[in-house]
Amino acid sequence: MKNDELKKIVKEKYSEIAAQSKRQNETSCCGATGCCGVDYTIFSEKYGHLDGYNPDADLGLGCGLPTEFAHIKEGDTVVDLGSGAGNDCFIARAIVGEKGRVIGIDMTEAMIKKAKENATKLGFINVEFRLGDIEKMPLTSNVADVVVSNCVLNLVPDKEKAFSEIFRILKPGGHLSVSDVVIEGELHDAIKTAAELYAGCVSGAIQTSLYLKIMEEAGLKNIKIQKKKAIQLPDEILKKYMSTEQIKEYRDSNTGVFSITVYAEKQSCCCNCNC
Hints:
Blueprint: H1 3-18, H2 22-25, H3 66-69, E1 77-81, H4 87-96, E2 101-106, H5 109-122, E3 127-131, E4 144-150, H6 159-169, E5 170-184, H7 189-192, H8 195-199, H9 208-217, E6 221-231, H10 235-238, H11 244-252, E7 256-265
Parallel strand pairs: 1-2, 1-4, 2-3, 4-5
Antiparallel strand pairs: 5-7, 6-7
Helix pairs in contact: 1-5, 6-9
């Protein structure tokens, strides 16, 4: 599929999700009731122990806890990519305090509306949400101390552009912590081409080594995996796309789907140059 078609799939699916509760979303693998028809939450992590957690903003869509690993400080400007209903933004706000600033970016109008409603209910004036594409962010350069993202960048068709934009908006000396889905080995073609599994974060995933290489080629330094967790795709899901024999072949292969949280830095300039 072309990039615009993939974006349309994601936008439609997450517009549907925005209209649902976390409980509804947790009854399927892809984050929206009816996506896969299976009662599994195979990606999401528990947020309840983190300061700033607001249940209304948690739709159970993440695959990690990037804000927990992001080394956010009081007074920082934090940008959350694919901010959804505002979950990671509100946790980041609890750390940056009133002197800091949090900006959420999402390409789905319904998610932006939901996030703004949540921020209004909480009375936050230093958390804002902007409609925009991660491949071309509505932000000036060198604005963010920290960039976070939770299970979103794998959905972006042009990851090179996405990480180039992240590098652009980071301040020199700034850093990112992103949670995402990656693969090791080769996914079966039936999984790769499944549109709803793309929206569910699986078929849009790329090899771990390539993911890290794209980050490096964007100019990011000191790249390290902070956390890694294997994701087990249930047979009930795979049966929608593969035969029993193909599933066994997949299980016996070295292919694995993983959630990773990755840290990287935009190094400070050492001179008066645009390095």
